[in-house]
UniProtKB/TrEMBL annotation:
Residues in the signal sequence: none
Organism: Parvibaculum lavamentivorans (strain DS-1 / DSM 13023 / NCIMB 13966)
Ranges where the 1-deoxy-D-xylulose 5-phosphate reductoisomerase C-terminal domain occurs: 165-248
GO process terms (BP): isopentenyl diphosphate biosynthetic process, methylerythritol 4-phosphate pathway involved in terpenoid biosynthetic process
Gene symbol of the encoding locus: dxr
Domain 1-deoxy-D-xylulose 5-phosphate reductoisomerase N-terminal, first and last residues per copy: 26-151
Name of this chain's protein: 1-deoxy-D-xylulose 5-phosphate reductoisomerase
MF (Gene Ontology): 1-deoxy-D-xylulose-5-phosphate reductoisomerase activity; isomerase activity; manganese ion binding; NADPH binding
Reactions performed catalytically: 2-C-methyl-D-erythritol 4-phosphate + NADP(+) = 1-deoxy-D-xylulose 5-phosphate + NADPH + H(+)
Length: 409
């Protein structure tokens, strides 16, 4: 895990913070989302431990105003410029600075918070997260799309700046907790667990008629709409395979997925001596977020404690690649090279949005991604620079939108 800084920046560490009696300065990118709210919930429980530098949102200006009034950041930013006046008026008299626009979100990430939660959904999170990385911050990475879309270039920036990257995605956080960076050569398999989503037992015909409401009703986790649909198609696990490939360099053949409907075992590492190490816990993102907040220490959370006697049974099954083709598509993209992953991510974002808007059916999501991947926009195996990533992403979005329009005809 070369990317996870060996030397720990004194300003960012909870243990050194405690020793110094200091406060950790924090920015939350995507504070109004599921990850953002869970992060705020944790820091509100330790008011003396944290200073909020910035909160950012996209369009949910009411929630942002509420959060800013309650948690008192130095700065509140709304990405949608048309909401600037509402934000300004909502925070009048508080002394909290306000700003609007995509550039303002990037500027917020550039402010000197020691720890930044990358909680924006989708490739929209790439530029702000990179800004935090480039100034060497401790970045808690929830936004998996950053790595899927621009993995090699993202890691290059981490290496250049000396930033600390802490995986927050529950599976990757689990692996981070049980994988000894000095024993990478002894790893036989990294096994990502997947709940199977709301349609785990549905037939293809049933899934063809699935509604957005059914798709976002995740059986175990309370998450934003996009990732919930990804869980339902199993694209989420595909994106996570690619994320794991960049975070834990054991080689693609050593990355595996198993369905585990209870979402108690968050992932496993199997070693050459036959040992399998896993991290378990109730399905609550406050555990992995707290791990990143307190790292390299730990902090108390209010998460429900695991009662295995009450749960009784944990079950596992192999994934069904026929009913859930997105998982195989993601592995193909991973093997094809980084540009194909950029295409996969962009096509998936457009297709999921089209499904949520009622423009295409549930099974069309994977079909759209497969068709756009087959066009070969990612023919350049590894993009040389970020401009190329953005260009591949842009073209793949146009191609997917065309696919959606043809499908809707
Ligand atoms: N939720 C979870 O449990 C988990 C999430 N993740 C990952 O974390 C990320 C966030 O997920 P989640 O919290 O569920 O998502 P949500 O949809 O709940 O929240 C997304 C956040 O990003 C903001 N946002 C959306 N689009 C933009 C944009 N174009 N520019 C700036 N900000 C934007 C939203 O603002 P607004 O509210 O104003 O729209 C919101 O604050 C995703 O990458 C997801 O895959 C990973 C593991 C678990
Ligand atoms: C909480 C989290 O990390 C999600 O990514 C979760 O894993 C989604 O559930 P699935 O296992 O159904 O994809
Ligand atoms: Mn996950």
């Amino acid at each position: 895990m070369a990317l996870i800084a060996e030397a720990h920046n004194a300003e960012t560490g909870a243990s050194s913070r405690a020793a110094a009696g200091g406060r950790k300065s924090i920015t939350i990118l995507g504070s109004t989302g599921s990850i953002g709210c869970s992060t705020l919930d944790l820091i509100a429980r330790d008011r003396d431990g944290f200073d909020l530098v910035a909160l950012t949102a996209h369009r949910n200006v009411r929630r942002l105003i509420e959060q800013a009034r309650q948690h008192r950041p130095q700065l509140a930013v709304i990405a949608d410029r048309s909401l600037y006046t509402e934000l300004k008026e909502g925070l009048q008299g508080t002394g909290i600075e306000v700003a609007a626009g995509e550039e303002a979100v990037i500027d917020a990430a550039g402010r000197s918070a020691a720890w930044v939660m990358a909680g924006i959904v989708g490739a929209a999170g790439l530029a702000p997260t990179l800004t935090a990385v480039r100034r060497g911050a401790c970045v808690a990475l929830a936004n998996k799309e950053c790595l899927v879309s621009a993995g090699p270039l993202f890691l290059e920036e981490v290496a250049k700046s000396g930033a600390t990257l802490l995986p927050v995605d529950s599976e990757h956080n689990a692996i981070f907790q049980v994988l000894d960076a000095n024993q990478l050569g002894s790893v036989e398999k990294i096994v990502l667990t997947a709940s199977g989503g709301p349609f785990r037992t549905w037939s293809e015909a049933e899934m063809a008629a699935a509604t957005p409401e059914q798709a976002v009703a995740h059986p175990r986790w309370d998450m934003g709409a996009k990732i919930s649909v990804d869980s339902a198609t199993l694209m989420n696990k595909g994106l996570e395979l690619i994320e794991a490939h960049y975070l834990f360099p054991v080689g693609e053949p050593r990355l595996d997925v198993i369905i585990h409907p209870e979402s108690i075992v968050h992932s496993m590492v199997a070693y050459e001596d036959g040992s399998v190490l896993a991290q378990l816990g109730s399905p609550d993102m406050r555990t992995p977020i707290s791990y990143a907040l307190a790292w390299p220490s730990r902090m108390a959370t209010p998460c429900a404690r695991l009662d295995l006697a009450q749960i009784g049974q944990l079950t596992f099954e192999a994934p069904d690649f026929k009913r859930f083709p997105a998982l195989a598509l993601a592995r193909e993209a991973l093997c094809a090279g980084a540009a194909a992953s950029t295409v996969l991510n962009a096509a998936n974002e457009v297709a999921v949005a089209a499904f949520l808007a009622g423009r295409i059916g549930f099974l069309d999501i994977a079909s759209a991604v497969a068709s756009v991947l087959a066009l070969g926009t990612g023919a350049v195996a590894v993009p040389a620079d970020l401009e190329t990533v953005y260009e591949i992403d842009r073209i793949a979005r146009i191609q997917t939108e065309e696919w959606v329009q043809n499908r809707a005809r």
